[in-house]
Design goal:
7-stranded mixed sheet; single chain; Jelly Rolls; 6-stranded antiparallel sheet; Spore Coat Polysaccharide Biosynthesis Protein SpsA, Chain A
Length: 405
């Protein structure tokens, strides 16, 4: 189908807020160790193979000095005289030789998604990027703190399943911990890290593989009570860190596979989380973490066919979304790839579902029937903009296969 000049084409990198070409910085990986040396050895085995990681800091919170099987030159061990728990993650990052840190707990396997996480970070290097299981992704939207009049625009995510962020975030947070928190509170510092950045973060749905989790800190007696106190204190403290919001890009990375990032210009339900106004003077807002107003039924419906299913290798799993005119979705690929697009459904069967497609530097216009049988060779980006007039609920499946020279 010929390109219609009346439709405005979309550059995927512009949509994601990328200014110029993608920089690919070197990264320091940080892993926290307590009681699982076998896990740490397994994690190091795949971290040393990543070309963009040239330093690996293992922070040992155990008073017994840690010995590892891999003596790779990238690895540096810091033996702490006492167990600093969460605070140690940020101390380790602050000692990195690079300006970017990757962090993961020692009870997750993240190497399947690391390249895509790194690629996502390169698109928006001034934000925190986290890997999050599908259900955790949903739950995190219940912990947002938006109030434009007060310059509040905070979102929440844990970082243990994998996260990438500028080293300066860790340095800034250590200053906050030292100024505002008791020593016992620093042990459960993770909750405050993302929130007190006071910027929307990038959460990437994935399916992490967990390793042995005996003696997990989050399973220890009294952890839930400590966490609740931390949540309340962070919410009350947040207004002190009011700041201008980073420019809000049109598109956001949403999910990752081994070699691709799925991005969209919309959330999976017809709801803008920024419309919930957090009142820092309202005690009920403080106690409830503000977002009881997020439509729970919409969230439950979404879990049946979430973003992560769009890139799943399971042929029975499809991503489903309701598309309105000018909604955008696309994929970033790490290396030159064969991208297969499959589209099913269409809640308005009488309407032709039309897409304006940008694949690298080429533009096409397709109907869903044409795009649904489409195989494209993509070097870096594929993007589709819905240009139909009627709202459509559609199932999408994306297969990405590396093409090796």
């Amino acid at each position: 189908m010929p390109h219609n000049a009346n439709h405005i084409v979309v550059d995927p990198l512009d949509c994601l807020g990328v200014d110029g070409s993608l920089a690919r910085p070197k990264v320091t990986a940080v892993v926290l160790h307590w009681m699982r040396p076998q896990n740490v050895n397994r994690i190091i085995k795949y971290l040393v193979k990543k070309s963009y990681i040239d330093e690996i800091i293992i922070w040992n919170n155990n008073p017994v000095p840690l010995k590892i099987a891999n003596n790779n030159h990238k690895v540096r061990i810091i033996n702490s005289p006492r167990n600093l728990k969460d605070e140690a993650k940020y101390l380790a990052c602050s000692q990195a030789q690079n300006e970017v840190c990757f962090y993961q707990d020692d009870d997750h396997v993240t190497h399947f998604f690391m390249d895509a996480l790194y690629f996502s970070f390169c698109t928006q290097p001034n934000r925190l990027h986290t890997l999050v299981p599908t259900l955790g992704w949903m739950e995190n939207w219940h912990k947002t703190f938006f109030n434009p009049d007060e310059n509040l625009h905070a979102t929440f995510s844990w970082i243990g399943a994998g996260a990438m962020f500028p080293r300066r975030f860790a340095e800034r947070y250590l200053n906050i911990l030292n100024e505002h928190f008791e020593e016992s509170e620093k042990q459960i510092a993770d909750y405050g890290f993302s929130v007190l950045l006071n910027q929307p973060l990038v959460q990437l749905q994935m399916g992490p593989l967990k390793l042995e989790q005996d003696d997990a800190f989050s399973l220890s007696p009294g952890f839930d009570e400590k966490l609740l106190k931390m949540q309340i204190k962070v919410a009350r403290l947040l207004p002190r860190f009011a700041c201008d919001e980073l420019p809000f890009p049109e598109c956001w990375p949403r999910s990752v596979s081994m070699n691709a990032v799925l991005f969209t210009s919309f959330l999976p339900y017809d709801f803008d989380f920024r419309s919930i106004i957090f009142d820092p003077d309202n005690e009920q807002h403080i106690l409830s973490k503000t977002n009881a107003a997020v439509p729970t039924q919409a969230l439950k419906k979404y879990t049946k066919k979430p973003y992560s299913f769009g890139l799943s290798e399971d042929p029975s799993r499809w991503w489903q979304s309701t598309f309105k005119r000018n909604d955008i979705w696309g994929v970033l690929v790490w290396t030159k790839s064969l991208v297969q697009i499959m589209i099913e459904g269409g809640s308005n069967q009488s309407a032709e579902i039309q897409w304006l497609v940008h694949a690298d530097e080429q533009y096409f216009e397709f109907t869903s029937a044409q795009l649904g049988t489409c195989n494209l060779i993509v070097n870096s980006t594929f993007c589709a903009k819905y240009v139909g007039d009627l709202t459509q609920t559609i199932d999408i499946k994306i297969k990405v296969q590396d093409i090796h020279a």
